[in-house]
Amino acid sequence: MPTVTMTLEEYEALRSLISSERESEGASLALRDEATKPKRRKKSKYQKELGRQLKMLKKKHPRTKITALMKRAHRATRKALK
What we know:
mainly alpha
């Protein structure tokens, strides 16, 4: 492997060139990802109410299994929307 010697200024210039290249590369990748992001669907009335009910139940019963809370939230949501 050949030995390369360079001055401190050359080394710093090379480092700044590499970092600026990475920054511009990252920015272009971020823009590309934003453009292909799918549009989110609108939450239904039921889904919003279920979220509210589940949040209240979790606050009241923090140690209860989530499956039991989901059943209770589902029942409460159907009752609330009736």
